[in-house]
Model the fold of this input.
Amino acid sequence: MTRSRSHQCGKVRFRDHREAITPLHTAVAVRKRAVDELQPTRRREVRTYECHVCHGFHLTSMAA
Ligand SMILES: [Zn+2]
Done:
């Protein structure tokens, strides 16, 4: 059995909510600019959530 050291659940992991918020805000800004410039974007992260698998935080595109 091999287990990833930092990606127990296979997702990008942040240590806490504050750490997860930064890339979330970046995604929101990128998405906003893309909409203004009528460019397609795949950045759809809208919120953070605590993961019960790795006890870290992740970004998700799903609404609460
Ligand atoms: Zn996780």
